[in-house]
Amino acid sequence: MNCKISYFKTTGKIVSGVGAIKTLPDEIRLLGGNRVFILTDEGIVGAGICDQVLQLLEGNVASVSVYGKVPPEPPLETIDECLSLAQEAGCDLIIGLGGGSAMDVAKVVSVLLTSEKPLSQLIGINLVEKAGVPKILIPTSAGTGSEVTPIVILTDQQENLKKGVVSDFLFPETAILDPELTLSLPPGATAASGIDALIHAVEAYTSVNATPMTDHLAVRAIELVVANIRSAWANGYNIEARMNMLEGSLLAGQAFANAGVTAVHAFAYPLGGEFHVPHGVSNAVMLCAVLRFNMIANLQKFAALGKLLCPDISSTDVKVLAEAGIRLLEELIIDLKLPRTLRELHVPKDAIPRMAEGVMKVTRLLANNPRRLTLADAKCIYQEVY
Hints:
Layout: E1 13-16, H1 24-30, E2 35-39, H2 42-46, H3 49-57, E3 63-67, H4 76-89, E4 93-98, H5 100-112, E5 124-125, E6 135-139, E7 151-156, E8 161-166, E9 174-177, H6 187-206, H7 212-234, H8 239-259, H9 263-275, H10 279-295, H11 299-309, H12 318-335, H13 352-360, H14 363-366, H15 375-384
Parallel strand pairs: 1-9, 2-3, 2-4, 4-6, 5-8, 6-9
Antiparallel strand pairs: 7-8
Helix pairs in contact: 4-5, 6-7, 6-8, 6-10, 7-8, 9-10, 9-13, 10-12, 11-12, 13-15
């Protein structure tokens, strides 16, 4: 029995279900918002989702400003631009509308509006000193779980690295999950974001900081994503599959917000930072090689994962079960037509040494990994997936 002390934190309120977006005016009112600043991206604007939100707010708030150009893998410079616009608008509530990038930018701009420190002094763990302006996060894809995490990931273009701001003050006051907002997500983005959610759950489950509570969340997230991701990818208008994917992503987010992710994400960061590979894609490419490296460190846990993924398997051998689970994940990645090698991503082989060095800098995540990783190991793992 695990009797060690553990802590569990999450978003203050979660509103979910078909049509949940219609509750937005009420949620803004409850938070005392009147001058709203929306952070979103060009895809959400082009799909008409931002207009839908603006119509809901018409007549319900004094003013609404929109920044609709949040880029994928947002660079540090984007934050400066958004912060300046938010200050100019005098906003008292921020909405992050979109995928993880838009939600992450909303979270960090929120705390910067009340911070006496610049962004450069907030990068790291628990360096944010006080709450920001209230924020509502509205995911339009099922992937990052950013709506329930105290983490913001940004790209340092000078160092070609991802960097994180980690603070409980980044939890939003409210998250709204409406599957109707995800119906227009293209198959490729559905696959990449969905596999990201699955990886969050798998890494939280195998993290050294896993607890019975995070395991419960991770297991349910794995069940939901594995059962629904193919349907959501093949028919984006399957509303039940879309709702289940949103729930799976949220539960995975709650699990890893408390247990942490591991080396899969550490290997993905240099791919996103230097080569701008979408986050879910870079995670998918690295997933199985890292899991095979890790499984020997905790065969019992990886065997339990294998049994969860392959319930019909008859073997009781822990190594057979662990390997069966990894094979199923490989088959899922193939079915979703996601890349499986660095070569497919046009990453040059001579980048492996410096990417491996980048992995070793992600100490925040490597501390959660079930197996100790060396620079030589990192090079070998990259070479394995080339």
